[in-house]
Amino acid sequence: MTQISTLPRVRRAVLPTAAAALLAFGMAAPAAADEAERTKATYNYKGQSGISIKMNGEEGVSGTKLFDLNLAEGGKLRTYCIDLETPIPLDMGSVPYVEGDWADYPGEGEFVAQSGKVLSVLQQGFPKTDLAGLRTAAGQPRLTEAEAIAGTQAAIWHFSNGSEFTGLDGTRDRNIEPRIRAVYDHLVDNAEDLTEPEPALKIDPGTAEGTAGEIVGEFTVTTDAEALELVESADNPEGVSLVYVETGELVETVTDGDVLGFAVPEDAEPGTAGFTLTGTSTVFAGRLFQGDGTKTQTLITADDGEATVTASVSASWGAVDGPEPEPEPEPTPDPEPTPEPTPDTEEPGGKPTPTDEPEDTKPAPGKDDEPTLPVTGGALAGLVAAGIATLGAGGAALYLSRKRKAAADASEV
Known about the structure:
Blueprint: E1 22-23, E2 40-49, E3 54-55, E4 65-71, E5 76-81, E6 95-100, H1 111-124, H2 131-138, H3 145-161, E7 165-167, H4 176-189, E8 201-204, E9 207-211, E10 215-223, E11 228-232, E12 241-244, E13 259-263, E14 271-283, E15 288-291, E16 299-301, E17 305-318, E18 345-346, E19 352-353, H5 378-412
Parallel strand pairs: 9-17
Antiparallel strand pairs: 1-17, 2-4, 2-6, 3-7, 4-5, 5-16, 6-15, 8-10, 10-13, 11-14, 12-13, 14-17, 15-16, 18-19
């Protein structure tokens, strides 16, 4: 997204987000949350000078000044120094500056820890408070602008660098120092721990992602600009519309609190879209500028002004996800074949003999299972003799039976 930075406006606990608007005359950030392109400015050694003062009892004095920063896009900002320990180079013709964040303060001192009180000093000091108001607040009716600048700068250095105002160089009117000290004491004693303000224009978030067939993004607009100009990107795909998220209706005007998004057709190819808002708003004191590639004092804006503010966002989407394919079934492995049982072998007597039993091993005889032994040798001869004897006895008996019958028949005759 592209963003344009504003100066701080009202109290806020943290720095503006990446989607915060920045000054229209600078600080544009790329469209997809890339590193921001900061506001460019130059210092040409011009401004409104104050009284030179001593800090921390040092022998030398430090000059005070409202520095004029010339913005690259036109316009001028008045700024104070918040880095007492770092000088501005005087041999460059002009010193390049770039807008920065409080959290990235590069100078020497305690600015990040005391930034809220520095902001409070800016709000109560000169020129945010005009000379008449500061005379009354400090109780110094003869206070001059040069003295007001010196007292305000001294109070800033007290919180940005932990320094104490200790006087002047001794060549000044003795009445000047009390007036400067009165301003310094007033600002230091009444400093509050303020927090950085909301930007004049912010769109949050700066980018969004989604899917075709839905509203992509919920971009919330925060602004105090009375009117905003809406420009949709020329590269937005045909059929993609900017709508109010709550109603789905096409956007016509944009005001504070609107929530916008891109209605993307279901058949849209993957793509991106964006829009930019621009308006005029009041910007406030407290924005940092640091050396752009050059070691120099860090400066902070001292007063308010009107500025054009701009913020841009982008959205991207992918194609509609189709139905998930059915997973292919995993092949079922063939069952392993069951081995065929090995048939038992039989002995001549019909008894099975396990194949895995040793040949010379005989099962122990049981009561109901007597072993059948082969008939061999002398046992066979005895059986033959017994059979002959039996046949002989039977023949003799048959002979005697027939002889008796013949004898009986003869006697009857």
